[in-house]
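step: validate -> pass
step: tokenize input -> pass
step: predict -> running
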Amino acid sequence: MLPDPSTEGPTGAQAHCRALEALYAAAPIQQQFKSRLELPEPGVSRIHFEVDPAFFHAAGAAHGSVYFKMLDDAAFFAANGLVTDRFLLTTAFNLLFTRPMREGPAVAEGRWVSGKRRVLVADARIIDAEGEECGRGTGTFMRSHIALSGLEGYQLP
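step: predict -> pass
step: emit ->
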């Protein structure tokens, strides 16, 4: 008898994506941010997050550290979605601020651009609640010696 796919859990690439989502949620830094990672497929990521006034600079908009964190994470997880055995490390990240982020919901969207062996390149952008781009960035990510399977939080279903 053939298995019923509707009753089975995720397998292969889907399982890896779910495990990366769990890894993101388990990181201690996530206690500081109201955010949720979504990996619809390898090479694509979305981070849904809230811009909190606690992270504003003196002029009343999100500090650049929020832009960097969300853009780096979105690009990183888009790239790591294609690498199933090792944790990637950010080796460089270029960021462009295009609009101040105000309080409220936003989404950081990441996508893999190139590379699959040792170094991967991915882009990301932040879209605010009004549908406007607030920032964009490009990162390079290198395979580390850290096995994903050894990281607390990376739980395959």
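step: describe -> Helices lie at 12-26, 64-80.
step: cleanup -> pass
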